[in-house]
């Protein structure tokens, strides 16, 4: 483990569109969706749309087939693979749902790169209908964050991840996202962390209003190619910082065994 936690939004960050819109549009339900949208929150709307799809004979297999051909930039999978190989702990925080995300990641063969997926619950019920539920039960316990939609505050999820790591002080976070929902978590990042907003998308515009509100360093990206370059650059930079500050017990033994002080930098430089 490198001590780096990389947190990815999913829609328009890992895949190059919104998975909810993709399914609705590809199955020909856009008009109904647009009609119903003003009447309820997005997450409740998706559950309702899954009922409409089921009623009109769309099967789970039909939905899976559409998810399997979702657009993704050609550099995203190599970027994820490399970040994983460099020892990053990679997690997803998304306002899509677990059924869509798992179906896509498994199809692409990249599910195992992620240690955790934080998203809205989703499951296929006994009638073969997909149910989509809110991450926070907003009727019973509203999350109270005014920046976020009622079903999910990504900032609270970041708090939970940060608190779950008792060696948190050594962990460095990199957060990637595009949407307005990625703004709240960007405010939770610390000085040693990095925010990677997608340029000219809602989170970018929100950050640009007053970048000084963020403690983390800001590094924009515009497409999968730039995402790969910026992300791998940051991971390598952090790893170099860590290597120059931190000496493992193994390494200490090495150092003890060398007598000349000038040999020290050499010993450090062989660390991966
Ligand atoms: Mg997104
Ligand atoms: Zn929030």
From TrEMBL:
<feature type="binding site">
    <location>
        <position position="11"/>
    </location>
    <ligand>
        <name>Mg(2+)</name>
    </ligand>
</feature>
<dbReference type="GO" id="GO:0046872">
    <property type="term" value="F:metal ion binding"/>
</dbReference>
<feature type="active site" description="Nucleophile">
    <location>
        <position position="9"/>
    </location>
</feature>
<dbReference type="InterPro" id="IPR023214">
    <property type="entry name" value="HAD_sf"/>
</dbReference>
<protein>
    <submittedName>
        <fullName>Uncharacterized protein</fullName>
    </submittedName>
</protein>
<keyword id="KW-0378">Hydrolase</keyword>
<feature type="binding site">
    <location>
        <position position="178"/>
    </location>
    <ligand>
        <name>Mg(2+)</name>
    </ligand>
</feature>
<feature type="binding site">
    <location>
        <position position="9"/>
    </location>
    <ligand>
        <name>Mg(2+)</name>
    </ligand>
</feature>
<dbReference type="InterPro" id="IPR036412">
    <property type="entry name" value="HAD-like_sf"/>
</dbReference>
<feature type="binding site">
    <location>
        <position position="20"/>
    </location>
    <ligand>
        <name>substrate</name>
    </ligand>
</feature>
<keyword id="KW-0479">Metal-binding</keyword>
<keyword id="KW-0460">Magnesium</keyword>
<feature type="active site" description="Proton donor">
    <location>
        <position position="11"/>
    </location>
</feature>
<dbReference type="InterPro" id="IPR016965">
    <property type="entry name" value="Pase_PHOSPHO-typ"/>
</dbReference>
<feature type="binding site">
    <location>
        <position position="95"/>
    </location>
    <ligand>
        <name>substrate</name>
    </ligand>
</feature>
<dbReference type="Pfam" id="PF06888">
    <property type="entry name" value="Put_Phosphatase"/>
</dbReference>
<dbReference type="GO" id="GO:0016791">
    <property type="term" value="F:phosphatase activity"/>
</dbReference>
<dbReference type="InterPro" id="IPR006384">
    <property type="entry name" value="HAD_hydro_PyrdxlP_Pase-like"/>
</dbReference>
